[in-house]
From TrEMBL:
This is Diaminopimelate decarboxylase. Residues 34-383 form the Orn/DAP/Arg decarboxylase 2 C-terminal domain. The keyword Lyase applies. GO terms for molecular function: diaminopimelate decarboxylase activity.
Length: 436
């Protein structure tokens, strides 16, 4: 696991998930199709939980893959849930996650969301002074008090993540300086039980040292803020942002090394604050590796010297494949799924059904030269930010089917949208009459 470079290694056989061939999954569930490997999800979570300081709790960020069965699987394996919308909250609750293991985060919470959390005693991660006032008002109105952790926008930034937070003007969290300048904050919100601090430094971090340095600085900041504001450290959430290697030249985090560097920070802190709950919140890292987006090639064609494989699904289900944080198109790892294919390889543009040139899953991808209609092509490492973060309604194709393979058994966890569902919310008026 130490070094898993992303390569286009030649396909040598038919590809399978836990012994079930992709061609069988495609025949059974249709394409385009997302397939998640539950064993992979379990391995990612256990790889951390079994090594991390025993006091550390891992919360799954539903944002990365909000499917209710994915949430239920992670819950069964010991993860808790971090949600950011009313529907995500209900998803986690129906997946069986108890309220005390859910936290609600997000910069634009509605009164309805705040109310649901206060009623069920779901921990709120508060992102602004205005939100804190709303939580106080809602809790007082309900004759209760609300547990709240303050999200801090730290004054420091740590380099090395795809999307750096901290040290910048952001809509997320409350600036460290503003908190330090407001020691009376707790007193002004009698219906709020301030219980600790949260910091999320950014996503797609692929350097073990950066993860550890972030964590150390966040724990340190929580101590300083606690002392200044008189807020007890019931809980400190150090965020996460652990990445997944997608592109050539990227390397996966080594979980052993990551934990080896993290644990001393947690141990030091826990020695000083034995009662504090320590939290990491992870999305991509837990589910990213597990997913394959499988599309079927409909046509192959040549245009001005370039080969195109036009498939039945594209960026409408996998917007991330367009490219993350880069103006140059970088490809996710892709492979032919249903057969070995010729040894001779050539560069293929793998495109989808949308009427836009941006609908390119992979540009100049090395695939067998004999790629043909009917073949299945898979985009790997697609378990996070897949259809949920894609324009699934574009051209009215709708959501693809999703399948979870767990303990050798493939289960449908979301059926694909059909035309009736796509049209159900549209309202047809009759414009043939000339009356008003
Ligand atoms: C998106 C997000 C996460 C999950 O991020 P990943 O990179 O998928 O792990 C966690 N915490 C916060 C605050 C987020 O916005």
């Amino acid at each position: 696991m130490t070094d898993t470079p992303v390569t286009d290694a030649p396909t040598t056989q038919e590809r399978a998930v836990q012994g079930i061939a992709f061609s069988e999954l495609a025949d059974r569930f249709g394409t385009p199709l997302y397939v998640y490997d539950g064993d992979e999800i379990a391995a990612r979570l256990r790889g951390l939980l079994d090594r991390l300081h025993p006091g550390v709790e891992v919360f799954y960020s539903l944002k990365a893959n909000p499917n209710i069965s994915v949430c239920a699987l992670l819950h069964s394996l010991g993860a808790r849930a971090e949600v950011s919308s009313l529907t995500e909250l209900i998803t986690a609750q129906r997946a069986g996650v108890p309220a005390e293991h859910i936290m609600f985060l997000g910069p634009g919470k509605s009164r309805a969301e705040v109310t649901a959390c206060v009623k069920d005693d779901v921990l709120l991660i508060c992102e602004s002074f205005g939100e804190l006032a709303l939580i106080d008002e809602v809790a007082a109105g309900l004759g209760t008090s609300a547990r709240v952790v303050l999200r801090v926008n730290p004054a420091f930034a740590v380099k090395g993540s795809g999307l750096t937070m901290g040290g910048k003007p952001r809509q997320f969290g409350i600036d460290e300086e503003a908190l330090l300048a407001d020691p009376e904050l707790a007193g002004r919100h009698p219906a709020v039980r301030l219980s600790g601090f949260q910091v999320y430094m950014g996503t797609r971090i692929l350097t073990e040292e950066v993860v550890a340095e972030n964590t150390g600085r966040i724990l340190d900041l929580a101590e300083r803020l606690s002392a200044r504001l008189g807020v007890p450290l019931d809980l400190v959430d150090v965020g996460g942002g652990l990445g997944v290697a997608y592109f050539a030249g990227e390397r996966d985090l080594d979980p052993e090394r990551t934990v080896e560097l993290l644990n001393p920070h947690f141990e030091d802190f826990a020695a000083r604050h034995p009662g504090t709950r320590l939290v990491m919140e992870l999305g991509r890292y837990l589910v990213g590796h597990s997913g394959t987006y499988a599309v079927r090639v409909r046509y192959v064609k040549e245009s001005r010297g370039e080969q195109f494989a036009v498939a039945d699904g594209g960026t409408n289900h996998h917007m991330a494949a367009v490219g993350i944080g880069s103006f140059v198109k970088r490809n996710f790892p892709m492979r032919l799924l249903n057969r070995a294919g010729s040894d001779e390889r050539r560069k293929w543009n793998v495109t989808g059904p949308l009427c836009t040139p941006n609908d390119t899953l992979g540009k100049a991808v090395e695939l067998p030269a004999d790629l043909e209609p009917g073949d299945l092509v898979g985009v790997d490492r697609s378990g996070a930010y897949g259809p949920t973060a894609s324009p699934v309604h574009f051209l009215s194709h709708g959501y693809p089917a999703e399948v979870l393979v767990h303990r050798g058994r493939a289960r449908l966890i979301r059926s694909r949208d059909d035309a009736e569902e796509m049209l159900a919310r549209q309202i047809l008026h009759d414009f043939t009459t000339h009356e008003d």
